[in-house]
Write a structure and sequence with these properties.
The chain is of the alpha+beta class. It contains four helices and eleven strands.
């Protein structure tokens, strides 16, 4: 059904590489540009004491180039770029980005999903964790040059927030919030 004929590496960066793929698909010669990227984890955090979802507001250059603002609302997330299981990477991201020190045993998998399937087909595993203020050990904000601001979303505003088109909300965040409304809101 498909035969890869040639792959040219167009450029390679620290986290991405761009390739040009020539292939035969159902008897037709085709060419496709593919951006290889790492898989990732994302964590929906609910702070029981604050009765709020904890999201991150983060500057993203590709978004800036499209809307001249660049700020997005996302789940706490990170690349699977370490020699660790995705659950342990998720636990580390909750600590680094949002400041909660929780054991891996509290984090539950919701599902995994594929994003940007036309260009890079990155797989993201989405987790959920409930936290308390006792587990808050620092203010979060990420590490190195990450520009992360914690955004507390009151549980009473979640449905309204999901459909707020004035904000750039990632698809993973919207999906996880819809899951939360469906599974956790009584």
């Amino acid at each position: 059904m498909i035969k890869i004929e040639k792959i040219n590496e167009l450029c390679k960066g620290k986290f991405l590489s761009l390739k040009e793929v020539f292939f035969d698909y159902k008897g037709k010669k085709r060419r496709w540009e593919v951006c290889n990227s790492m898989d990732s984890v994302a964590i929906l955090i609910y702070d029981v004491d604050l009765e709020s979802i904890i999201l991150v507001k983060q500057f993203r250059l590709p978004v800036y180039l499209k809307n001249n603002d660049g700020y997005t609302y996302e789940l706490c997330a990170g690349l699977c770029d370490k020699d660790k299981c995705s659950l342990e990477i998720a636990r580390e991201e909750v600590l680094e980005e949002c400041g909660y020190d929780v054991p891996s045993s509290k984090i539950q998998k919701i599902t995994s999903t594929w994003a940007s399937v036309g260009t890079n087909a990155a797989n993201q595993t989405i987790y959920y964790v409930e936290v308390t203020q006792k587990e808050k050990v620092h203010n979060g904000g990420g590490i190195d040059d990450e520009d992360i601001e914690i955004f507390e979303l009151s549980k009473n505003r979640v449905k309204e927030f999901i459909f707020d088109e004035s904000k750039v909300i990632t698809p993973g965040a919207k999906f996880a919030l819809m899951w939360w409304v469906s599974e956790k809101v009584k």
